[in-house]
Amino acid sequence: MVLHRGKPRTGGKSLGSSLREVKEETGITKLALYSSNTFDQIYSPGENSLYITPVFVSFIEENQDVRLNNEHSDYKWLSFEEAKEFVTLPGNRGSYLYRKELY
What we know:
By secondary structure, the protein is an alpha+beta fold. The protein has helices at about 15-25, 80-85, 90-100, and strands at about 1-5, 30-45, 50-60.
């Protein structure tokens, strides 16, 4: 299970943006994408704006080559129990645990 979101380009849709982000950032193309029916709220102090964005859950087919773009330097495949230790922001941690209950 992977949690992700993508910022839509002008005129784009969130679902398509999330798929595009996964492909651009990891090279992964074989995945099933589902709405988690939850949203992240992100405050941008520089723009003094609050962004509300849907969060998607994807199940990725095994044995795909991961090719990270320049936005990332490393990755790990983790179990849910291992991964939750990397989610440190209180709001994100709660969302992650909630999503595990659903999926």
